[in-house]
Request: fold
Amino acid sequence: MRIILITGISGSGKSVGLNALEDAGYFCVDNLPPKLLRHLVEIRLEENGDTLAVAMDARSADSLAGLPDDISLLKEEGHDVKVLFLTAKTESLITRFSETRRSHPLSHRVRPELGRAGQPTLTECILREREMMSAIEGIGHVIDTSGLSANKLRAWIKDLVETERTPLTLLFESFAFKFGVPLDADLVFDVRVLPNPFYDTTLRPYTGRDEPVIAFLDAQAHVAELLADIRNFVGKWLPAFKNDNRSYLTVAIGCTGGQHRSVYMVEQLARHFRASERVLLRHRELS
Reply:
């Protein structure tokens, strides 16, 4: 059976992700206590089901400790189990809770700071939840949803589902340093040392996908040199990541605005590795 466990920090988009999995044909269950996971799998097998998606979060934190062992047992039984861990920067989570005017799920379970009465602050709840979920984060593929629209998150989940049977998927992601490094990056490369097309007013409206910017960067010797260095580094260590039984390896390339240089580099790297590997592209700052 193909099983996807979607978990992470409250407000990071688990409901959106679960809906995307339901649209992809998965039988979905929300907020399942982890101790019931194996029993649910047995029920699905009795019903001849071949897919299952389950959302879990800190509301069941007391029984999350045994989840890694349950996942290992399910894999030993021959099930294809993937864990997606959604997270976001604290400021993004605060904005989302403020917009929806919902209280944090832990607001009645976390004690406020010492010497202060009443309910804990939203920030206190988020920090406590990160502590509670830290052990689970290490066993899953992390997706940073900071600044992502619901539509883009659904598209990313769909792409990941389509690659679930491949041994390892290379994710190349462009981003802007001014908006922060992606939390889900395994490898991060800084290409701000390269000539910036932004300062050419004729190139500024374009992106690293467009021919004028491509031609400009192709003509720069340092661009080709840095591209070759990154390509060789990823190629050299990719077998080691595969041997580590990873499902995904996220390589993030950053520049100042996330429009030109990082986009160009990601496109070039994806074109090179696509000949031999399963590759996905993400341009975080492009609409």
Observations:
- Residues 144 and 182 are 6 Å apart (CA to CA).
- The first strand starts at residue 2 and ends at 8.
- The longest helix spans residues 221-243.
- Strands lie at 2-8, 28-29, 51-55, 80-87, 141-144, 169-176, 187-190, 248-255, 278-283.
